[in-house]
Amino acid sequence: MDKDIEKVLFTEEEIAEKVRELGRILSKEYEGKNPLVICVLRGGAPFMTDLVRRMDIPLEMDFMAVSSYGASTQSSGVVRIMKDLDTSVEGRHVIIVEDIIDSGLTLSYLIDIIRRRNAASVKVVTLLDKPARRTVDLKPDYCGFEIPDAFVVGYGLDYAEKYRNLPYIGILKPEVYS
Ligand SMILES: O=P(O)(O)OC[C@H]1O[C@H](OP(=O)(O)OP(=O)(O)O)[C@H](O)[C@@H]1O
Ligand SMILES: Nc1nc2[nH]cnc2c(=O)[nH]1
Ligand SMILES: [Mg+2]
């Protein structure tokens, strides 16, 4: 285990099992719809790339980068598009894939943009959800795990750009933040 991690919340195996389960559910739900699966970079990348390999239906992938946290553990409240989609979402069934929903600001902004671009449908799948932290009214359509209010890292989730490559999800030791 990484020396900066205080506690592992979800092991590599637990994550893999959950991703398989979500892949099965989405494959049934989107059969015959050729969904456009959108990864919210950078945090959503490991989850999205694992998830699509558990979906055994035709689908397309695209990537979007937004950022509201910078190098902080608090959302700035201002969501910026750093990289837009390359695909038109008009008439498409869109699945937005996120690593985590915290305040909900990032996703409510993204959902709004994609709806305004006339997608046929927009749904959200998140690996982690921290409902206690929500500042806007937003519920994921599919969620891996609900977690308590703690800052987590690993499997895409960073602190100051580190730890995204950990294969598990854990809580950092408090001294790491200082
Ligand atoms: O619900 P919210 O309060 O908006 O927080 C969730 C968002 O914050 C993180 O991304 P971040 O903006 O830190 O960028 P990153 O994905 O590149 O790490 C995370 O990956 C989500 O996208
Ligand atoms: N790494 C990380 N990024 C976040 N963005 C919003 N919440 C979190 C969190 O708990 N951990
Ligand atoms: Mg993100």
From TrEMBL:
SUPFAM superfamilies the record matches: PRTase-like
GO CC, one annotated term: cytosol
InterPro entries: HGPRT, Hxn_phspho_trans, PRTase-like, PRTase_dom
Pathway assigned in UniProt: Purine metabolism; IMP biosynthesis via salvage pathway; IMP from hypoxanthine: step 1/1; Purine metabolism; GMP biosynthesis via salvage pathway; GMP from guanine: step 1/1
Primary enzyme class: transferase
Cofactors demanded by this protein: Mg(2+)
Domain Phosphoribosyltransferase: 13-159
Subcellular localization(s) per the UniProt record: Cytoplasm
Keywords: Cytoplasm, Glycosyltransferase, Magnesium, Metal-binding, Nucleotide-binding, Purine salvage, Transferase
UniProt GO BP: GMP salvage; guanine salvage; hypoxanthine metabolic process; IMP salvage; purine ribonucleoside salvage
Catalytic activity: GMP + diphosphate = guanine + 5-phospho-alpha-D-ribose 1-diphosphate; IMP + diphosphate = hypoxanthine + 5-phospho-alpha-D-ribose 1-diphosphate
EC number(s) stated in the UniProt entry for this protein: 2.4.2.8
Principal cellular location given in the protein's record: cytoplasm
GO molecular function terms listed in the Swiss-Prot or TrEMBL record: guanine phosphoribosyltransferase activity; hypoxanthine phosphoribosyltransferase activity; magnesium ion binding; nucleotide binding
Functional summary from the UniProt entry: Purine salvage pathway enzyme that catalyzes the transfer of the ribosyl-5-phosphate group from 5-phospho-alpha-D-ribose 1-diphosphate (PRPP) to the N9 position of the 6-oxopurines hypoxanthine and guanine to form the corresponding ribonucleotides IMP (inosine 5'-monophosphate) and GMP (guanosine 5'-monophosphate), with the release of PPi.
Family affiliation: Belongs to the purine/pyrimidine phosphoribosyltransferase family.
Name listed for the protein in its UniProt record: Hypoxanthine phosphoribosyltransferase
Organism: Aneurinibacillus thermoaerophilus
Classification lineage: Bacteria, Bacillati, Bacillota, Bacilli, Bacillales
Designated gene of the protein: hpt
